[in-house]
Amino acid sequence: MFFRLILNYNLRIHPKDLGPHLQETIKEKFEQEVEGTTHPKWGYIVSVIQMSVVGKARIEDNTGYAVFPIQYEAVVFHIFKNEIVNGIVELISEAGFTVNVGPLSVLVYSKNIPEDMTYDPNSTPPCFKSPDESRKIQIGSHVRIKVFVVDENKMVGMATISQDYLGV
User: Which ranges of the sequence are coiled-coil (predicted)?
Assistant: First the structure.
């Protein structure tokens, strides 16, 4: 789920920013561009731990931008297919419910909820509950889910609670 990785990035700096405070400019711009984004292979970049320029900058012919090769160490959030995770229910409707798992929003459709749990719109707040009401899923409930589809570019996924040891 969370990993500490060493990654590379090419940072473009506008010519007007090439001045006496270049190091601070590089650090600020790098953190703005990288933290809170999604890496195509490794997932959501939670935080940059350390960064360093690992070579000489090159100048782009067409724009005049300086491109600095950066190597950085980061904490990344990555969910694998069929991974079991814990999250907090954010929204509930007849179609299912949405669970927040860190920055990932995961949808659990009603067909992926055990058959004995039914949607109760008259409950305050609306919920999915078992016939004896021993299990109740409502906004704010902590649930364990099995993620079977993940799109980390959009930070969304789909999951089930219809297996043993899943749910509330």
Answer: none
